[in-house]
Design brief:
The chain has 15 helices and 30 strands. The protein is of the alpha+beta class and 568 residues long. Helix 1 packs across helix 11, helix 2 packs across helix 6 and helix 2 packs across helix 11. It is globular. It binds adenosine-5'-triphosphate and magnesium ion. The site of magnesium ion has 3 residues, from strand 20.
Length: 568
């Protein structure tokens, strides 16, 4: 590809609305352009990268025996009513009408459509197992689209859906996708981790996520290399402390705390740490408000809390009016002693003695609070986020925390959709049996952003070979003044292209500095510079995007090196 004909515009300035490096670099390198909030055009350079991702994904899905199809993006509401999700899915779902006032949505995912296909097409267990996939545009009306293509509203997903006659079959299909996903992310050259996950909106039982590790990741991952444990922090379990609680040493004392509204204010007044206090959060319960009690230094985990019987799902914090009515007090002065609501204590709270908390009276707190004396012995629950240093559920190691970008998610759905929508096949015994389903997503567009988060430097993108839009950039110096350079560059461009390289030939009449800066920004792995000086010596200047320095190589040596490093 000749740069002069490629229509690529790079930007020097960092776009103001881009918060993270991949978003900035994708705009600066001309991979994408924004249309509106969460909507992006993939420019020719970006589309080349996207197609590379798709190619690897498609090859590994095909290798795993999945069958590609293509479903409509627009889906009729009737199907979503059958599954019960028309009312459940909430504001993420973009709903619309046609001219006959029929209701539709723009698909955020395709369980309903594929289950409809399956119930029509699949008749007998002999047609199973089967796994259908597509690479297709989704829309989710995200509350906060950000980070460019990593959390956009319209995006491309590879979604696959498996159908099996029984749970054993589902586990085998799930295992094949687990292995295919591992192969995909290996091939893309990304550092990733597979973690246990919550099944969220989609429902079902077992689920795992594939995360590209990056400091800017929106998810926190708890892991322990010693016992091979890894989980999204959303679902990472905390254990009840097994060490005995200290013996109470203090008397219960109520004291005035004017102006104390937060745990930090309280700690400052008493000269204690947040771990010696508890905080009380009022949330909606299934039968009126309830109180969740956590150690002052711990964070509430909404995903785990909303699964506890008695706590409403989705977790909803009570508003001030509800808190005042239910407790007779106000947020900032709440505590478990004398609290007139059902109490749910986090495991860690049970390990405290002589702690401090609100007194359920505006402007007052307690200190010296103890279980068994001031409060009954608590029943405890898993309510908080794990923190670094917590024991692993297996008990053999301690947890570390890393940040990750979710690029893939695999679920065992079971019969949630097939049951609701009547997707059955004839079993070997002749009876109709509901199929067991799995579903498997990969964020095709998100992968491009995630790859840049993991592979860049101050000068620009450093594409992993398999994702690079071109593998070689050819930079002639003074081509518009030197016929030798022009001839040599044209010949080399033709030769490399013939050999199957994807070459970006920077034939612009521009200063070398401009060409070099663009080559770095765009991140093409191999750079070859042709100048009068190195031509005279029969050499080319070579530099890999990851190298600090360039080096001169004989023309043949340079070609050999490219051939050997060629990936596709
Ligand atoms: P998240 O937790 O990041 O919102 P999700 O769990 O809702 O994602 P899934 O339903 O598991 O997403 O979708 C499968 C994949 O699609 C995700 O693993 C992710 O890579 C991608 N994806 C989901 N939402 C978006 C989005 N708004 N923009 C880009 N990619 C997305
Ligand atoms: Mg997910």
């Amino acid at each position: 590809m000749r740069f002069s004909q490629f229509g690529l515009t790079t930007l020097k300035e960092v776009p103001a609305d881009a918060e993270i490096v991949s978003h900035k670099l994708m705009l600066r390198a001309g991979l994408i352009r924004r249309l509106a909030s969460g909507l992006f055009t993939w420019m020719p350079l970006g589309l080349r990268v996207l197609r590379k991702v798709e190619k690897v994904v498609r090859e590994e899905m095909d290798r795993a025996g999945a069958l590609e199809l293509l479903m409509p993006a627009v889906q009729p509401s009737e199907l979503w009513e059958e599954s019960g999700r028309w009312d459940q899915y909430g504001p993420l779902l973009l709903r619309m009408h046609d001219r006959h006032e029929r209701e539709y949505c723009f698909g955020p995912t395709h369980e309903e459509v594929i289950t409809d296909i399956a119930r029509r097409e699949l008749r007998s267990y002999k047609q199973l197992p089967v796994n259908f996939y597509q690479i297709q545009t989704k829309f989710r009306d995200e509350i906060r689209p950000r980070f460019g293509v990593m959390r956009s509203r319209e995006f491309i997903m590879k979604d696959a859906y498996s159908f099996d006659i029984d749970h054993t079959g589902l586990e085998a299909s799930y295992g094949r996708m687990h292995d295919a996903y591992s192969a995909i992310f290996e091939r893309l050259g990304l550092k990733f981790r597979i973690v246990d996950a919550d099944s969220g909106e989609i429902g079902g039982s077992r689920s795992q996520e594939f995360h590209v590790l990056a400091d800017s990741g929106e998810d926190a991952i708890a892991y322990c290399d010693a016992d091979d444990y890894a989980s999204n922090i959303e679902t990472a379990a905390t254990m009840a402390p097994d060490a005995d609680r200290p013996v109470p040493a203090a008397e219960l004392e109520k004291f005035p705390t004017p102006g104390v509204k937060t745990i930090d204010d309280l700690c400052e007044m008493l000269g204690i740490t947040p771990a010696q206090t508890v905080k009380t959060l009022i949330v909606e319960g299934t039968d009126g408000p309830v109180a969740l009690i956590l150690r002052g230094d711990h964070e509430l985990n909404a995903v785990k809390a909303q699964k506890i019987p008695g706590v409403a799902s989705p977790l909803t914090m009570a508003d001030n009016a509800t808190i005042n009515k239910a407790t007779g007090s106000e947020a900032g002065s709440l505590g478990p002693v004398g609290m007139p609501l059902p109490l749910f204590f986090d495991h860690a709270v049970a390990g405290l003695a002589d702690f401090s908390c609100g007194a359920n009276e505006a402007g007052f707190h307690f200190k010296g609070v103890n279980f068994g004396r001031d409060l009954p012995e608590p029943e405890t629950f898993d309510l908080r986020n794990v923190v670094a240093g917590d024991p692993t559920p297996g008990g053999t190691g301690t947890l570390s925390i890393a940040r990750g970008i979710e690029v893939g998610h695999i679920f065992q759905l079971g019969t949630k959709y097939s049951e609701a929508m009547g997707a059955t096949v004839q079993a070997p015994d002749g009876r109709n049996q509901v199929m067991e389903m799995g579903c498997y997503g990969i964020g095709i567009t998100r992968i491009v952003g995630a790859a840049i988060e993991q592979n860049h430097d101050d000068d620009g993108i450093i594409w992993p070979g398999p994702l690079a839009p071109f593998d070689v950039v050819l930079v002639p110096i003074n081509m518009h003044r030197s016929d030798e350079v022009r001839d040599a560059a044209e010949t080399l461009y033709a030769e490399l292209t013939d050999q199957g390289h994807e070459v970006l030939f920077d034939d612009r009449d521009a200063r070398p500095g401009v060409k070099f800066a663009d080559a770095e920004l765009v991140g093409i792995p191999h750079r070859l510079v042709i100048s009068d000086r190195n031509l005279a010596a029969g050499e080319l200047e070579y530099r890999h995007r990851r190298d600090a320095e360039s080096r001169n190589l004989k023309r043949e040596e340079a070609l050999k090196l490219l051939k050997e490093s060629s990936v596709s």
